[in-house]
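Encode chain A's predicted structure.
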Amino acid sequence: MSWEAEAFAQRLLDWFALHGRQRLPWQSNPTPYRVWVSEVMLQQTQVATVIPYYARFMARFPDVASLAAAPLDEVLHLWTGLGYYARARNLQACAQVIVAQYGGEFPQALQAMMELPGIGRSTAGAILALSGGQSLPILDGNAKRVLARVFGIAGDPTSSAVLAALWEQADACTPARAVAAYTQAIMDLGATVCTRSRPACTVCPMNAGCIAALEGRQTELPGRKLKRVRPAREATLLIAQIEHNGSTAVLVQRRPASGVWGGLWSPPQFASERDALAWCRQEFGDTAQSQPLPPIDHAFTHFDLRLHPLKVRCEDKPGVRDADNHQWYPLDAPPRIGLPQPIRRLFEHLRTTRNE
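Encoded structure for chain A:
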């Protein structure tokens, strides 16, 4: 047998009532704002990782108005470690639009919701379903995997034809009632049972009619995206240090809004050690001997990055002071600004080993 859409939805709801996650922080008082923040944080990030970030974020920004009015650095600081920082920038941009155009209240129409910065069809559907019970389908990674396996939807899930088939199936399965529970349930099933590798088919409520389980195609479904060779980049990371008021400080620059680590603060990057030292001499004059540090490897979605930190002791010149695009970052009393996670780890290492 294979599942009919209505029977699939009911079976999923029955499973969720017994085994679903029903005490997640954003399930308490599920306002559009609280659901929205959770949905954005959960994009490509596991629930266990998100929960402490969500708690800190909501304590600082309890509503859309406080988020809209906050300094971007404060938003990025609280996001440090979650990765995919465009999410944080879009989050605040979206909050500002909601305040300016909708008086601080989320629109309740799907199309209007999808026109907000950083909100696509699946996120918009999840917000409206989880906060208001609107019968709208979602198609996040977990839902795609469940639907592709249960209903045997093969092919590259990013292709337009396969994506259309998945949306059609998602729409057919979404019930008219109990839609908030159903929406959480399909995400939970994908996250805890129908996992990417080693799915727990023996305890899955859908195994009796799941095409992937019946035909042994769990590794084949969902289909794989076409693999491309991952490019690699390298750069020299200049760690220009000064001693100021008894504390070590490192020069950081705000990165451009678009691109890698957009809007975050990081030491300057150069194509080579030679370029880094030349820039350093130009800005600070004669410098003490430079010291290479172990390389930093970081994987982004579409490429791998290797940074070669170069530590240079500099004189505290009066002309090099904090400005809009650069500042001195004291290691002992760090300011609340957004740092990429590898840079934060590097600074902590510098702080704890500087006297060695």
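The first strand starts at residue 232 and ends at 244.
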